[in-house]
Amino acid sequence: MVMADTKRDIRKLKADELRQFFVQHGEKPFRAQQVYEWLWNKAVKDFDQMTNLSVNLRELLKQHFSINPIKVDRMQRSADGTIKNAVVLYDGLVVESVLIPTEKRITACVSSQVGCSLACNFCATARLKRMRNLSVDEIYDQVVAVKEQAETFFGRPLTNIVFMGMGEPLLNYANVISAIEKITSPKGLNMASKRITVSTVGVTKMIKKMADDQVKFNLAVSLHAAIDETRSSIMPINETNPLSDLADALRYWYQKTGKKVTYEYVIWKGINDSEEHAKALLKFCRIIPSKVNLIEYNPIDDGRFQQASEASLQMYMHLLESHGITTRIRKSRGRDIDAACGQLANKA
Ligand code: SAH
Description:
It is built from 11 helices and 14 strands. It is an alpha/beta fold. The strands form 3 sheets. It has a 10-stranded mixed β-sheet with strand order 3-4-5-6-9-10-11-12-13-14, with helices on one face. A two-stranded parallel ribbon has the order 1-2. Helix 10 links the parallel strand 12 and strand 13. Helix 1 (15-24) packs across helix 2 and helix 10 (275-285) runs parallel beside helix 11. The chain is elongated, with a radius of gyration of 22 Å. Bound molecules: S-adenosyl-L-homocysteine.
């Protein structure tokens, strides 16, 4: 167990609070700007790395504050190049983040909560109790860690970020939004919003909130079934956020942002592999401009769920594509190290 530091976490301070601190201690206000840059843009983990501050000033900061960076405790590499990080937080809790390399991209898949409260039947993370939300800096640090790994192990920059790790990003909305602000800011990592995707189980109220906030990143919805009865039987969220409400929220999203949505969809044998389900998906895809990612199922130890046949996959592909819906098959990555979609469960 790592002990939590009792000093104030300096990254919880806003830029003007930091400025006030320096002024109160008889220092020049511009010091705040320098420290802010060290903390976010350069993401240092120690006050001694702030080399443009005097030793005395560094001591002053050490007396009052701590920096609580995440620690990548264990790194596993898949045969396909995927890297999974076990990330230890300041209070000893653990989340996972993943680096996914392809020919053109390097994507960071990051967590937004410790555990998850949503109870989707097919997902391993759902078996972990939701312990708490991740803070802004804990989300940010995961991206920094993967960015460093991209440069070290692949000699390439990080190109994309997906909020598809543990947890439901829209149930930790404020922190996810602030982390994205820092990730996209020139004072932070200066990454483009259009390279960032937030994936939700379909929390309709929060999809509307995102639309009102005019966010610039991409939206993905884990749909998995476009028939209420089936969706409710595998994703309990559908009981309180049924498909008609989801459709309304998506219309609102499109009206406010003009951005399309990506549906994530796994096809399981005997659950949603019929033509009726494929047609329901096609109908749902017409609500607003959309595309579909058919995700390969990553088995977790629940016999109820089995990957559908190749024939069902092709049936879906053909139906959607022949009606103009862009559809991609997303092959599983990192499955040998339990790093694939739905497998993040803090297993050793
Ligand atoms: N809570 C958010 C973020 C998690 S994203 C959301 O639900 O969108 C993780 C993605 O992996 C989701 O689309 C989820 O439905 C999918 N998934 C979960 N378990 C899976 C499994 N066993 N195989 C393949 N995909 C899975």
